[in-house]
Structures are given as structure tokens and as C-alpha cells.
Amino acid sequence: MIGVNRIGVDGNGIKFEKSSMIVAPTGEVICPNYESAEPGIYEIDLNDTCQYCDKFPKLRDKRLSLYKQLGLTHD
After folding, report:
1. What's the distance, CA 15 to chain centroid?
2. Is pLDDT above 70 for 74?
3. Measured over all CA atoms, what is the biggest interatomic distance in the chain, rounded to whole angstroms?
4. pTM over 0.85
């Protein structure tokens, strides 16, 4: 999962702290390879992610009734 946030001060004087992060499918927080006052640079291994997702029983956990309630399925 990748969560991003803006940094710096906006036009209303609201300051945004650096708080973006990446979490691997295993729950491990991925640290940036390079970090400065600007956005950090991260490396993501998509092969690791794909391998984990292939083994995770995500379809078993899927609740189709919720998708239907939200109108996200086509019958």
C-alpha cells in the first residue's frame, strides 16, 4: 500500500509534514533509499509483491454482497 501526502506550506499557511509511506503486503514498512526535505525515493520489488499476492487467499475473503450494495458489480 502506498500512502502519499503533500509537504510544505500551502496558500493558506497550513504546514504539511512529510508523512508518506509504503507498506509491503507483509506489513513491513519500506524505508526510503534516499530521503531529504523533498520527497523520498523508494524502491519497490514488484516480484516480491506478486509472489505474496499469488499465495494470499484474497478471493476467499472477498464479500461480493458488499460490492453489490455499493453498486460495484454487474449482474
Report:
1. 23
2. no
3. 49
4. no
